[in-house]
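Justification of computing resources. Each target in the renewal requires a structure prediction run like the one illustrated here; the chain below, 90 residues long, is used simply to show the kind of job we budget for.
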Amino acid sequence: MALAAAMARKPVVREGLVIKGEGYGFMVAYVIRWHKANVTIHGAVKYAVEKGGKFYVLDDDGREFRMMILKKMLLPAEPKAEAVRATNPK
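Resulting structure tokens:
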């Protein structure tokens, strides 16, 4: 009986995202329950990180999704723009 009940359950479907923030990138995943997160690839996304690995994303429709952090990556620092002095060759 337990085997038949386990086979009757719906499969667990997960979706993963990579989100780049200021200084850090996050690889996150969540279990799809009712809706998938509606986020635009290479678009802006609002997110929050709490202690204990809690990660929240606000999608394009305004729905909040709690996600699990799989990896946290330190992004390389962007090169600082330096003033270039123009020289006149004589």
